[in-house]
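Escalated from tier 1: arginine holo job.
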Amino acid sequence: MTERIVLAYSGGLDTSVAIGWISEATGAEVIAVAVDVGQGGEDLETIRQRALDCGAVEAYVADARDEFAEQYCMPTLKANGLYMDAYPLVSAISRPVIVRHLVAAARQFGASTVAHGCTGKGNDQVRFEVGIQTLGPDLKCIAPVRDLALTRDKAIEYAERHELPIVTTKKNPFSIDQNVWGRAVETGFLEDIWNGPTKDVYDYSDDPAFPPAPDVVTVTFDQGVPTALDGRSLSALQIIEEMNRRAGAQGIGRIDIVEDRLVGIKSREIYEAPGAMALMTAHRELENVTLEREQARFKKTVDQRWTEIVYDGQWFSPLKKNLDTFVDETQKYVSGDIRMEMHGGRATVQGRRSDTGLYDFSLATYDEGDAFDQSSARGFIDIFGLSSKVATERDERVAGDVDSLADVAQLSNES
Ligand code: ARG
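Tier 2 regenerated the structure:
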């Protein structure tokens, strides 16, 4: 039987050419796999037909938008996933869902190999191949751009020579990856890191310098997951979409950073993730209200590790699963409402309400009705500061180690 290869297919120039390119180079039959993660653009039927017209023997298309929103975006929100405190993992979380469908298609069509269109310089090749190795250890991986010398110029030439039904003329200066969680833009003049982004870089958000009137939204969460906007129950996908629209109109979620790739390169990235960033602001504040102090402090460390693991392409790793268990357990009481004003590039929390919160008015108030026994504070402070106090006395006692006390003395002389 002829060997079969499943190809992660976007419908664009490079992967359309890759269909014929791979079959010529390997003699295998190519099955195109297109996964909708909310990237917009053409519908799946158009993409399926193009794959077949470009020589694929089969086309597998999947609407994975709800799956992506529920099983990939929501865990990211629960973990407040921001790589380098800035990037909400847009591309990093879409690769594992695509991998799941690639492996499913390989099984369905009896393929031995999976192909993707990544170059050898980025994170996405790692995410695809580590994921495929994990879910389908028997499958081989190839990357035509990286392994079969498919350059962009060759792709254009190939498409014209074979009269492939794709637009090859318009030259987009950027490399763009987008889905419902956000949009990543790189290359072109952005590679000079002194250059500011021009207006045409953005698509999911409007200029925050000229915002419409403020938009006040109430986000309802149930166990860390948003379930309603302004009292209307919606699916995870619908919530992200509506927040993309509303927060995007206010120019929220534009990010411009130099980022550390796993492969050791620093790269300039522009992101826009209006919905994700606004939802994260709301989620974090609800955690402030509902998580116990030590739990919250420790979760920050777990969130960061979770984010790095996911960025590094280890979505299906055992440690990632362990950390998911921790994060999920912390979300048990992260339920309630957050009211935010979205305006001019910012989402600002103005109100919080939770039946499972730890905020206790009678403990916090400085007005009548104070239930906090202030007389306990003194003893607490004495004991809390005791170890430092004992150490200071030791420093004083031991000759030659009076630096810290000398500093204090000098300070009091100056004042
Ligand atoms: N640097 C980001 C990441 O590694 C975005 C990659 C986007 N991919 C692209 N082909 N533009 O997650």
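The longest helix spans residues 90-109.
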